[in-house]
Every structure is written in structure tokens, then in C-alpha cells.
Amino acid sequence: MFGVIRVKERKRNNNLLIFCIITLIGLLLSGFIFKPKAIEAQEPLEVLTVVVKNGDSLWKIADRYDNNKMDLRKYIDIIQKYNNLDNTVLQPGQRIKVPIFHTAER
């Protein structure tokens, strides 16, 4: 009787081990497949000079020129650093540099 219990217990433990290994492999593979784009570490492909129009904001400009669809907050932060801006207030006629990033398509 104890032998039957041990066989069932061993089989259950083996199934649990196999499940854990498959789950771990899946998590590792998903990290490679869905890894985030490291835009901030890349040099821009080009830097455009944009003249601010009436009603423009950094949010609108970032949304207009973000062809990678990165987090707009990060992109705004990058634009602010390129232009040494302390805040997000822009004036019509002001010229700002907007870095354009491109990533490899899958």
C-alpha cells in the first residue's frame, strides 16, 4: 500500500517539476520576444527643428513625431533634455529640436 502512495507522489512531483520547467522556459522566451525597445540608449536617426505653433504643447509635438509609439512621458523628457527645457511651457515661434528614433521592424 505504501508503495502505491509513493508511486503516485513521485508521479505528482514529476508532473509539478515538468510544469515548473515549462513555465520557466516560457517566461524566458517571452522576455526575448517581448523585450522593450531601448530607445533612450540609441542615438536619434535625425533631429528635426520644429517651430512651435499657437496651441502646440510638448505633448502634441511628442505625439506627432513619435513614430515608435514609446511612452510619451519618456519622449517628452528626451525632448526637454535636447532643448534644456526646465518645464513643458512653449511659446509660439519658439524653435525646438525633436529627435527622431527608428527601431527595427519585426
Give a concise summary:
With 106 residues, this protein is mainly α. It has helices at 2-33, 58-65, 72-82; strands at residues 46-51, 95-100.
Describe this structure in words.
The protein has helices at residues 2-33, 58-65, 72-82, and strands at 46-51, 95-100. The model has no long low-confidence stretch (mean pLDDT 83). Strands 1-2 form a two-stranded antiparallel sheet. The radius of gyration is 26 Å and the shape is rod-shaped. Helix 2 crosses helix 3 (72-82). The protein folds into 2 domains: 1-35; 46-100, Membrane-bound Lytic Murein Transglycosylase D, Chain A. The chain has 106 residues and is mainly alpha-helical.
Strand content: 5-15%
Shape: rod-shaped
- According to CATH, what is the class of the largest domain? Alpha Beta
CATH superfamily annotation of the largest domain = LysM domain
CATH-derived topology of the largest domain: Membrane-bound Lytic Murein Transglycosylase D, Chain A
Total number of helices: 3
Radius of gyration: 26 Å
Largest sheet: 2 strands, antiparallel
Instruction: Please tell me the total number of domains.
Output: 2
Helix residue percentage: 40-55%
| Helix and strand sequence | HEHHE
Secondary-structure arrangement, i.e. CATH architecture of the largest domain: Roll
Cα distance, first to last residue? 57 Å
Number of strands: 2
Q: Walk across the major sheet and give the strand order.
A: 1-2
| Overall pLDDT | 83
The poorly predicted ranges are none
Protein name: LysM peptidoglycan-binding domain-containing protein
Organism: Thermanaerosceptrum fracticalcis
Transmembrane segments: 16-34
Domain LysM: 48-98
